[in-house]
């Protein structure tokens, strides 16, 4: 373990060893600011990342991020996990939400309890009781015998822009502020700015839900493209406002602090502008059925579909229990009907209307 | 006064006479759904709108909105105001924030107290005590002897898209819910959806502030264009999130309900994508001084500049009084420094970082 203090740019920096498991675009990109701070970064591929690791070893470049990785990154296949974990100060989970079961069984069961974990995976699981549980809490529930420090990253950040050193603001959340400060010190830098919060449920729910609502907002993109091929903003803004309204309600239902809506809104903003969630929302808005849209996307299962479905399931459970009203979540329930019941896109604009008396 | 009930599309509609004073793009566009509901719409130009009214009379088209106005719109020059007000059921103020003094002196002093008013003008005035007062409240303060019903429109709506019948969601606010419902009945339609609120201060503050923060968010557009000519979203999303954070704080300071942030966020979203506020934010972000940027915009005074300055003035007053801390509004104060003190754009990213302990 490096624990020497080093002079660097007149600041005292503690060098740490950071092991990232999951060499997808975000797992690989989050190491950039950490490596540039002088830390040792070890990138470990999952069984699905073999090619990425081989390619990076040979060329120093990331196959799907399509960027040169920082000098000094060390690369490991999953069989070398034990070597990669040797003397590590932090384990980063870089898996997507489709890798969380694997990560829990193969990684979280073998690491020492003294090794803190930072998860980039955004997502939640619904329960039969209508709860929505974010991954850090799920891991803890599934591994009751283990005392792990499981922290997570929330906030608006695309991996490509992080790798390009764009100004980025995120929030690290976890149960212990001292641990969060130590992790922050490894990553913070001139372009990567980090708030800290012990409201794990609030931060994680806010940033997970935005995937569902980004799909909702981009329905308006498709609707207007179908109309005249141009972008129209009144309708997008209306769905954006309604999304913020429903996300705030969901945050309260989950037990998170309302203030976290800033991460949800910021993250919603960035998600609306990029990637496959915008693509599927746009296709659905243009009038394609869910099956046709998924065909266009070549059957890739999207996190936005998963999270929309899970969130809607929780809400439907709570409606059945009489704990919430369906009028409180018209946009979410419409998205759910479109993706899971074959309903055509037909935004329930009138249901969004409210009357508020002081 | 029409007060006959008419059968129209199997719904019973009360026809009303709506007089709009101010024939700019928004004043002219808000009459579209009202006219299409069968109401009589009378468009009265201010002394600055002579050409618009002349042109519309001759051609049926709006000179700056560049759209055909609805069949049956009636046009009046300001000298014909008395005729235009005859038997009117609603007066709409279509003036911009630069016309509010004129509107107050020339119009609000002469109308009957029984005539309700609906203002499309977004804006606030700061006071020496650090308050921010929206226009409906200012009018009431300035005309203490008059018992007027002054209502206002908030929410994300560009005039061009409203005139194009795009799906649009707004909020009408005023002191009396019954009056609001009557006004809503004149305007609501298949593409114009209206929530109602008696929280005038909350709705109006939320939608006024977004002009200041739209300028702030678009600084990131200019910063990234300067870098490589491309749009980057992490930095925009960071400024969007920070804007939502500061706007929620301002809402509380103004005494408005926090829930109105949905109008602020939606309105911020639409303003970031269009018009001159994006233009000036982008130019400033690219590195132009405020004077150079204003020169590019040919000296047009922007509402975003006015509202940013007024809001910052109120906040600076409250800081001097020890009622708020400057760390609570770093983005607003930076925008103020750029536009009013010649400071270069240098986003205080680190100051945005927070620590939150449950």
Q: What does it look like?
A:
The structure is a homodimer of 358-residue chains. With 358 residues, chain A is α/β, with parallel strands linked by helices. Helices cover 47% and strands 15% of the residues of chain A. Chain A has 15 helices and 13 strands. Chain A has helices at 25-29, 31-36, 50-59, 81-85, 100-108, 135-142, 159-163, 177-187, 200-228, 233-254, 261-272, 275-286, 290-296, 303-320, 330-340, and strands spanning 5-8, 11-14, 17-21, 40-44, 74-76, 90-93, 117-119, 124-126, 132-134, 150-154, 168-173, 192-197, 355-356. In chain A, strand 11, helix 8 and strand 12 form a beta-alpha-beta unit. In chain A, helix 9 runs antiparallel to helix 10 (233-254), helix 9 (200-228) packs across helix 12 (275-286) and helix 10 packs antiparallel against helix 11. Chain A is globular, with a radius of gyration of 21 Å. The model of chain A is unreliable at 1-12 (pLDDT under 50). Chains A and B meet through strand 12, helix 9, helix 10, helix 11 and strand 13 of A and strand 12, helix 9, helix 10, helix 11 and helix 16 of B.
């Amino acid at each position: 373990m490096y624990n020497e203090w080093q002079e660097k740019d007149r600041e005292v920096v503690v060098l740490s060893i950071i092991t990232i498991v999951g060499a997808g675009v975000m797992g690989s990109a989050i190491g950039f600011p950490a490596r540039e701070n002088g830390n040792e970064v070890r990138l470990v591929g999952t069984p699905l990342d073999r090619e990425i690791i081989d390619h990076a070893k040979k060329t120093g470049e990331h196959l799907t991020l399509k960027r040169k990785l920082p000098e000094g990154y060390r690369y490991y296949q999953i069989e070398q996990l034990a070597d990669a974990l040797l003397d590590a100060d932090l384990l980063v989970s870089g898996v997507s939400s489709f890798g969380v079961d694997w990560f829990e069984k193969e990684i979280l069961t073998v690491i020492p309890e003294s090794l803190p974990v930072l998860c980039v995976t955004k997502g939640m699981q619904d329960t039969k009781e209508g709860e929505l549980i974010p991954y850090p809490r799920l891991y803890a529930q599934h591994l009751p015998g283990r005392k792990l420090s499981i922290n997570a990253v929330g906030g608006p950040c695309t991996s490509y822009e992080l790798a390009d050193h764009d100004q980025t603001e995120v929030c690290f959340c976890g149960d212990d502020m001292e641990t969060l400060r130590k992790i922050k010190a490894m990553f913070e830098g001139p372009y990567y700015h980090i708030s800290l919060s012990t409201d794990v449920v609030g931060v994680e729910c806010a940033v997970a839900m935005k995937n569902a609502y980004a799909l909702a907002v981009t329905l308006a993109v498709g609707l207007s493209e179908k109309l005249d091929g141009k972008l129209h903003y009144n309708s997008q803004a209306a769905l954006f406002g309604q999304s913020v309204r429903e996300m705030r309600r969901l945050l309260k239902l989950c037990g998170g602090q309302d203030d976290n809506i800033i991460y949800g809104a910021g993250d919603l903003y960035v998600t609306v502008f990029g990637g496959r969630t915008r693509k599927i929302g746009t296709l659905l808005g243009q009038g394609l059925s869910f099956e046709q849209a998924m065909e266009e996307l070549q059957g890739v299962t999207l996190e936005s579909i998963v999270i929309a479905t899970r969130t809607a399931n929780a809400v439907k459970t709570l409606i059945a229990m009489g704990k919430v009203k369906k009028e409180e979540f018209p946009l979410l329930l419409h998205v759910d009907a479109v993706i899971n019941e074959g309903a055509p896109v037909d935004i329930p604009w009138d249901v969004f209307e409210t009357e508020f008396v002081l």
